[in-house]
Amino acid sequence: MRIIATGTCVSLEESGQVFTLLEKPALPDYSNITKRPYFSVYYSEGETVWERLSCSMAKFAELCRDDPYLGCYALLLHRLYPLLLSDNRAKNLAAYGAGTDCMAYRVIQDFMTFLHTGSALTALALSPFSFTAVSPGSCSALLYRLDTCPAPAAVCDAINKVKPGGLFLLYTIKETVSEELVCLCTKAKKDSFGPCTLYTLTVDEAVMDFARENGSEAFVLARASEITRRAEDLGGLIQAMLAGTALPDDAWFIAVTILQQTEELLLSLYDYLENDELPVFANALKEAVLNYHTGINRQSDLTSYQKDLAETAEIFFTAVETEF
Amino acid sequence: MRKYKMCMIPAYPLENVQLLKDRVLLPYVCYRLFGESFSIVTQSTGDYPYLSCLEGTDLIPLPEDRPHMEAAVSYVSAHSQDIDLLFLFGARGEYMELARTYKSLRPDGVIYLKLDTNIDWANAYPLHDKNFSVFLEDCDIISCETRRLQSFLYKKWLRPVEYIPNGVWYPLYPEAGDVQLADKENMILTVGRLGTAQKNSMMLLYAYALAFPSLKEPWELVMAGSVTPEFQAEYDRFCKEFPPLAPHIHLTGHISDKQTLYQYYKRARIFALTSRAEGSPNVFSEAAIFGCTVITTGVDAAPDMTDNGRVGRISPDPEDVKGFSKELLSLCQDTGYLARNFHEIRSYMRAYFDYERLAGRLRSLVGLQALKRRTS
Question: Which pTM value belongs to this model?
Answer without folding.
Answer: 0.82
